[in-house]
């Protein structure tokens, strides 16, 4: 049965953040809020935890996975970033955007899109997420908390508890999140293009 933490969205309790980071470090799978929707995540290099996330979401190996990072410098260690891509990243982070980039050797192969060798990358503007990343001292593998067959992501922590209490190790209730996912931008070439229009506004660039 999963643990359930109420964490204040503006002033995250350090004790609970530390416990959440410990759960991740021990291979746990967690549900947590972001600046767009709730997400499910785990430690980057833990294959068993990744397999559990894939099972919850019914994801195949072709699904583009995402790493959620503390800042632009951490993001840059996982991706090949051109000058134009860097300008866009600098302007739009932190925020509700997912960037598709060519992965570096720092990204475990199992996390890369098999055909394109790409990885999704995010720098969220959410205090709970940022506190968790800082305490964990590493990025998280993450994906939107949308259950198989559902058109919208899960948004109600009480429902998450009912549905997922035997599938995840921790649910962080950080208050209401939206239902609109991130805007996805492919930056694998020098031009860049929008893959999905979501919450973030990138009209200045596209």
Description:
The chain is of the alpha/beta class and 206 residues long. The protein has a single domain, classed as DHBP synthase (Alpha-Beta Complex), CATH 3.90.870. The chain has 6 helices and 11 strands. Strands 1, 2, 3, 4, 5, 6, 7, 8, 9, 10 and 11 form an 11-stranded mixed beta sheet that branches. The longest helix has 12 residues. It is globular.
Outline of the structure:
The protein is α/β, with parallel strands linked by helices and 206 residues long. It is built from six helices and eleven strands.
How many structural domains are formed by the residues? 1
Q: Mean pLDDT across all residues, rounded?
A: 95
Q: According to CATH, what is the class? A: Alpha Beta
Give the number of DSSP strands: 11
Q: What does the main sheet amount to?
A: 11 strands, mixed
Shape call:
globular
CATH architecture: Alpha-Beta Complex
Enter the CATH topology name.
Answer: DHBP synthase
- Give the fraction of residues assigned to helices: 25-40%
Evaluate the radius of gyration. Answer: 16 Å
Query: Which secondary-structure class do the elements indicate?
Result: alpha/beta
Distance between the termini: 45 Å
What share of residues are in beta strands? 15-25%
The parts where pLDDT drops under 50 for at least 5 residues are none
Query: What is the helix/strand order?
Result: EHEEHEHEHEEHEHEEE
Q: CATH homologous superfamily?
A: DHBP synthase
Number of helical segments with 4 or more residues: 6
Considering the chains and any ligands shown, give keywords for the structure.
alpha/beta; DHBP synthase; 6 helices; 27% helix
């Amino acid at each position: 049965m999963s643990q359930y933490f109420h964490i204040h969205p503006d002033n995250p309790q350090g004790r609970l953040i530390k416990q959440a980071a410990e759960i991740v470090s021990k291979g746990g799978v967690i549900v947590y809020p972001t600046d767009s929707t709730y997400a499910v995540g785990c430690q980057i290099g833990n294959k068993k935890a990744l397999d559990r996330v894939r099972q919850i979401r019914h994801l195949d190996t072709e699904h583009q996975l995402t790493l959620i990072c503390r800042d632009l410098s951490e993001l840059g260690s996982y991706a090949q970033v051109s000058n134009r891509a860097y300008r866009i990243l600098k302007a739009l982070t932190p925020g509700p955007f997912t960037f598709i980039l060519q992965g570096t050797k720092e990204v475990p192969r199992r996390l890369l899109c098999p055909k394109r060798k790409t990885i999704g990358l995010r720098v969220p503007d959410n205090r709970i997420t940022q506190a968790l990343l800082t305490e964990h001292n590493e990025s998280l593998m993450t994906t939107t908390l949308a259950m198989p067959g559902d058109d919208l992501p899960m948004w109600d922590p009480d429902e998450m508890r009912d549905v997922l209490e035997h599938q995840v190790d921790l649910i962080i209730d950080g208050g209401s999140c939206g239902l609109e996912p991130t805007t996805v931008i492919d930056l694998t070439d020098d031009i860049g293009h929008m893959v999905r229009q979501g919450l973030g506004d990138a009209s200045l660039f596209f």
